[in-house]
Amino acid sequence: MRTARPRHYLMCRPTHFDVVYSINPWMDPAKPVDTQLAITQWEKLREVYLSLGHTVDTIDPLPGLPDMVFAANGATVIDGRALVARFRDAERIAEGPAYHDWLRDNGFPDLRTAHVVNEGEGDYLLAGEWLLAGTGFRSDPRSHDEAQEFFGRPVIGLTLVDPDYYHLDTALTVLDEQTIAYYPAAFSPGSLAVLRRLFPDAVIATAEDAAAFGLNATSDGHNVVLPHNATGLTEQLRARGFHPIGVDLSELLKAGGSVKCCTLELRTAAQSHDPA
Asked: Which positions, given as ranges, span the membrane (predicted)?
């Protein structure tokens, strides 16, 4: 039996969403973006979370920061402590202070901005007692030591090798404390061996489902919210006893983001022992 547990999420309405620069292979400024459609799709995701009993806070979007909708990148919050992101790309640097201020003003006084490049839950995913940490394209590998010292939890470094999957949360999702799903081709041979050793019963995504951003998902231990067109992954999850819920975030995918990218989990000390 899978058990759903209430989550506390932070999201950012895509009021200023657009693709005006390219910092990952999914972004093409030459392709038109429908901001209103992006808002409608985002609102549907928020409604799904609320219908599942989760708490959803929102941070005000700032003009000139079209990627601020991807709240997962803003910080990592575990045990009530927040390590705020330090972005690699100049276009996103101002997002860090915005998330820092929101967390400070909303009950997270124990916080620090990362000293080296660290793109929040884009590259940091809590799996039981382990903090899975991605590197290769965005977060600096030195940030793994910083995160381990800050959170006092063992950090498992994982190297990404396919630029289409530039953040860990595009190639791996945590389903519960013991179960993950991931796309093997996104990882270096050594990192893949680590994943196989730590999670021998993992759900393995196909290339088609990974390309649909099916792994950019959220789970409360039972309900898994993921892109609706990751159909093979949906069937695998259902067979494992999870309840997959498909949503359409196709407009946001034009910037290389989907469900998880839009969702930063705010974990208190008690909640940090639940699946991420």
From this structure: none
3 lies in a domain? no
Q: Is residue 108 part of a domain?
A: yes
Burial class, 245, CB count within 10 angstroms (exposed 0-12 / middle 13-18 / buried 19+): buried
pLDDT tens per residue, range 75-123: 999 999 999 999 999 999 999 999 999 999 999 999 999 999 999 999 9
Number of domains in the chain: 1
Instruction: Name the residue among 202, 234, 217 with its Cα closest to residue 45.
Output: 217
CATH number of the domain enclosing 108: 3.75.10.10
Report how far apart the first and last C-alpha atoms of the chain are (Å, whole number).
18
The active-site residue out of 12, 54, 144, 261 is 261
Annotation marks residue 261 as catalytic:
yes
CA 170 – CA 7 distance, rounded (Å): 20
Whole-model pTM?
0.96
Q: Catalytic: which of 54, 100, 144, 167?
A: 167
Annotated active-site residue 12? The verdict is: no
